[in-house]
Amino acid sequence: MTRLDQLTAALCGPTNHLCQKRTLFRMFEIALIALICLFSISILWYTLKTGIPPMPSSGRVCRVILGASEKAAEGPIIDLGSGWGGLLFALARKYPDRPVIGYELSWLPWIYSQAYSVIFRLKNVRIYRQNFLTTQLPDATLLICYLHPKGMQALQKKLSSDGQKLNTLLISNTFALPENQPVETLRIDDLYRTPIYIYNLKDAD
Q1: Range of 18's domain?
Q2: Are residues 124 and 44 in the same domain?
Q3: Residue 188 and residue 63: Cα distance in Å, rounded?
């Protein structure tokens, strides 16, 4: 206890409710700061580990991807790096009768997404805290990702080795597969003319 704390305790006395409230408020502040630091360190750690922070897609990007998703056949949908779940939950609402699966490594976005899916009763959503690059993915008719150049290279190798179903569609936000030509490239009406690449993975075999 610091001298200031000792002086405050002597002046206030143990039964002074005002002093007790100040002490509790101070403890709450310390706990809140510690929690924020912990969450920040967690996000930074997984950003360094995966090479990309859990960045949400913009509203315009989400709308374009939702439209492009209609090109895929009926079946499960997988979001490779679902982050805070914005696009994942939009897909779950658009396709309530289809399994919508997310993979996210970072603790805080994963916890948030789990809580959101429970609170809003999105029963077709499953979110795994796993690295999709080292996990055997279930069969799906639609894969969606927002990665980075090295991540796309790693995804290319995984798709080649895992042998996805012939009718799988891949939609990638911003970054392209290094060895495949997209069947279509859409451009978002934003400052960067963000590209959305659409691949039919049967062309990857």
Answers
A1: 3-50
A2: no
A3: 10
pLDDT confidence tier of residue 4, bands split at 50, 70 and 90: very low
Q: How does DSSP assign 54-120, residue by residue?
A: -PPPPHHHHHHHHHHGGGSPSS-EEEES-TTSHHHHHHHHH-TTS-EEEE---HHHHHHHHHHHHHT
Do 177 and 199 touch, CB atoms closer than 8 A? yes
Q: How far is Cα 88 from Cα 186, in angstroms, rounded to an integer?
A: 20
C-alpha–C-alpha distance, residues 123 and 95, integer Å: 11
Strand 169-173 versus strand 100-103 pairing type: unpaired
Query: Amino acid letter at 137?
Result: L
Q: Is the dihedral of CA 71, 188, 198, 102 positive or negative?
A: negative
- Say whether both 74 and 28 belong to one domain: no
The CA distance from 111 to 129, in Å, is: 9
- Kindly state whether residues 124 and 193 are assigned to the same domain: yes
pTM (whole model) above 0.90: no
Per-residue pLDDT for 68 more than 70?
Answer: yes
pLDDT interval class at 126 (50, 70, 90): very high
108 within 8 A of 40, measured Cβ to Cβ: no
